[in-house]
Amino acid sequence: MTQKTRFTLVNFKIASWNVKGLNNGIKRKKILTYLKLSRVDIAFIQEKHLCKSEALKLKRSWVGKVFSSPGTGKSRGVSALIHKAVSFTETKVITDKEGRFVLVYGQLLDTPIILCNIYAPNADIPAFFHNLSQHLLELEGAQIVVGGDFNQILDQDLDRSLPRRGTESKSVVAIRQMTSDLGLNDIWRTMHPEGREYSFYSPPHNVYTRIDYFLISEALVNNSVDSSIGNIVISDHAPIFLCLGNILQIPQSRRWRLNVSLIKDSGFIKLIRDEIQFYKQTNNREDTTLATWWDAMKAYLRGRIISYASFKKKAANKNIITLEAKLKALEAVHSHTKDRVTLNKIVKVKYKLNVLYNRKAEYALFCINQAYWEIGEKQSRLLAYRLKQKDSMNHIPGIRQSDGVISTSIRHINDGFRAFYNNLYSTQGTKIIH
């Protein structure tokens, strides 16, 4: 009897963020760390200000694939970052010469999908959206997720802290035409019909606006669990998030490792000593073998270590969560009052948050640099780990089945190889895969 591949339904998180430059190594690490802590699976990055050769600097930490439309060192440039744990197989990638959009057509798990990241011109140029719509129309039979900085206000009453009457720009008309032709939906506005949250603040005009959007296919609306707007801290734009539910995924196996930094924690050392003594007193070694007694104690201590490490991590992140909530509330007040006192409070909170983000990024860079400086050129665990990571990225994107059809489905690939080897080692084999 063959064992079937187990799948589970998970939530899938996509982020879009105008980061206003990633040339600085500390800021680049802050952005990637923030997205990692936000548990993002796919990230759309705008205004990265990295040329083609530098775009691979984003392929670090959790990022497995990078699709970019490079700008110059001082303007434009967009990238789509895909988590290394996400099963995505690209079929076609379309970019423009100005670094304004990157369009990736492929298979997300078993679903054909188009991921489109845009950074629209801040002038009224409807031709940009007409051109984008034409590219999307040419790729049929797939769900569409368009995200990015549109540089346009779709609703002058709700998407602007100071409502303004007047005729819509030609670009807004082009966006509405594109959403109508492609069957797209502004998912944040759908979930918050009367909501007033903003993704950009202009100090010269003292006005908040929502100009960053996710436009998704109508078929994905029912799968949408949440859509939210973050804080304006690291960049002059806030990140926006989209969470899709009921996505079929193979659960990732995780291997527990001891956080060695805890060894320098006096509270941790005392905890382990006390837990060992408690285990000795409550478990009679005469009733079992020494090996079983020792393995059981290791399992017990691992549970206590995980609990302690989780507590320490939550305590460390509590300050950040508190400051982010405070900043969100202050921005909501300032969008209505526009007073200088509230603005000064916002600046102070942003400063405190940036200090905490900097510490996290600097410590992460320090650990990386130290490890590579000490053992980077030696045959060690670091080299083995890097080789293992590289091998894990060389997955099989598709197979040709017995009927001649090429399948990129994870389920079909696993079942195909299982059937092939079952037949290969049986007395009578049949040709399954070519």
Automatic annotation (TrEMBL):
The keyword DNA damage applies. One of its GO terms (molecular function) is double-stranded DNA 3'-5' DNA exonuclease activity. SUPFAM superfamilies: DNase I-like. The record marks N151, D212 as: Transition state stabilizer. Residues 15-237 form the Endonuclease/exonuclease/phosphatase domain. Mg(2+) binds at N18, E47, D149, N151, D236, H237. It comes from the Eukaryota. The record marks H237 as: Interaction with DNA substrate. Gene3D superfamilies: Endonuclease/exonuclease/phosphatase. GO terms for cellular component: nucleus. Keywords: DNA damage, DNA repair, Hydrolase, Magnesium, Manganese, Metal-binding. Probably binds two magnesium or manganese ions per subunit. Its EC number is 3.1.11.2. The active site is at Y119, D149, H237. It is an enzyme of class 3 (hydrolase). Transmembrane segments: none annotated. InterPro entries: AP_endonuc_1, Endo/exonu/phosph_ase_sf, Endo/exonuclease/phosphatase. The keyword Glycoprotein does not apply. Its cofactor is Mg(2+); Mn(2+). It catalyses: Exonucleolytic cleavage in the 3'- to 5'-direction to yield nucleoside 5'-phosphates. One of its GO terms (biological process) is base-excision repair. Belongs to the DNA repair enzymes AP/ExoA family. This is exodeoxyribonuclease III. It comes from Oreochromis aureus (Israeli tilapia).
